Amino acid sequence: MTPDPQxxxxxxxxxxxxxxxxxxPARTASVPLWTLVCAALAALAVAMGALALLAGNAxxxxxxxxxxxxxxERTVLLPGVxxxxxxxxxxxxxxIAQVFVNDSFVDVVGGTEPVGRxxxxxxxxxxxxxxxxxxxxxxxxxxxxxxEHEIPxxxxxxxxxxxxxSMALLGVYVGIIPVALGMMALPLLRRAxxxxxxxxLALTVGLLAYLAIDGGLEAIELAELSGGAFGGPSLVVLGxxxxxxxxxxxxxxxxxxxxxxxxxxxxGRRLAxxxxxxxxxxxxxxxxxxxxxxxxxxxxxxxxxxxxxALHNTTEGIAIVAPLTRQRPSKARLAVLALLAGAPAxxxxxxxAAVNNSEISALLLGVGVGAIVQVIVQIAPxxxxxxxxxxxxxxxxxxxxxxxxxxxxxxxxxV
Length: 415
Prior knowledge:
Immunoglobulin-like, 11 helices, single chain, 56% helix, four-stranded antiparallel β-sheet, alpha+beta, 2 domains
């Protein structure tokens, strides 16, 4: 019987070190993975640094005049003073030579040095502006380019702790109180049957879908006013995508740690918390819009505004408690859910009035949109009927009712 060569090679004694023909094990497996990753990143950094140092000198210089672009990010009007925060959104440095207000030369403090790419500068214009009058500000660069900024109606910019306190109180009126009022419908919802609860969840999807669409359109509008230095509308997509992925990762981590045997008693609370967080992020962006509009004089505080927002946001409280119809949450838990959903409106209003930055507002509104979309994805499986239909007549009716309800109550709000 002829011995198998492969078996013979296994039984053969190992050759002493140093002899030729000996196959040694690869040493790559002994190197930690993080070492290989760090080495690859270091090589990439060295290559990018070399390109930055050498490629610029090797390329030919650009022909033609410099490209100068300025965007006005913030306008502050104080007695006898107009402060402009401008940012260079072009590829070349910009030197501001003169500034005119309604074709009149004005004295300028600041902006003496060239403004580099993506850098910002604050110009203080000493000008006796009048309340309610329109003004056209023209900035003349050193190369003769004119950049214009229009103030439709001059209104003094609110400042001080009193204004911020008013914004925080407004956030309580339009955020926390309406959500709490909507959550008071929980005892009525408990008497509903499973089919009614499913319709209420469909109503919640309609409400959230309207909030996502409305917030997305408002965020894109704000981003287009920012000048595009940091991406413009891309900021909305970035904020929405990051929020969706982050909340999805958190949800997966929470699910992996929970015992599915308790799913029937826990999922409702988890879903209610997720809805509250999503609505809270949207209300943060809504508060930013309110504070920014008030800071530039486009919003007048009044009872109609408060009542309009209260009716508009009361439905959010109903959306939060809809998954809790089969449970008995404590008053403390309900209070926490109300704060999660409503308190960000106060924070947003304060930030919006103090900062009034279009980029920040657009990014955070995008975050709210992404959070709401993630909540809709979580609610969607609960809308299936007993026969497995994702969209039956009752579900479609609930979603439609939610969209119409938010639209009609939104007509009462003018910001």
